[in-house]
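Catalogue entry: protein
Contents: sequence, fold tokens
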Amino acid sequence: MASYRRDRAAEDIKHELAAILPKLKDPRISGMLSIIRLELAPDMSRAKVFISAMEGMATAKTSARGLQAAGGYLQREIAAKLRLRTIPFLEFIADDSIEYTAEMFKKIESLKKDGESDATKDD
């Protein structure tokens, strides 16, 4: 039962963070950030927030530092929106998932084009 409650709280926190991120004015924080996943500790005292940026890993790392600096503000905003007994300490971690996915998509598209050009040469 506790796992269900923790998972639901993690999704609620993730949703609220996604709504708050575009409103932040720190120049270190990229406008094209995505929250990949949020891991909430069993006692719900800490949350690891994995973020990724479209611009690449360097931008994601810079944005993670900016978000860590704004951690207190983000916790206060989450506390105002959600009714949780304890608001977890937020730890932001850069992730390269979006960049990796974009690279894989480009490779697949190039393989498709190569396959199509080979098929037209055979005809």
About this structure: Residues 52 and 98 are 6 Å apart (CA to CA). The beta strands are 33-40, 46-53, 89-94. The mean pLDDT is 87. The chain has four helices and three strands.
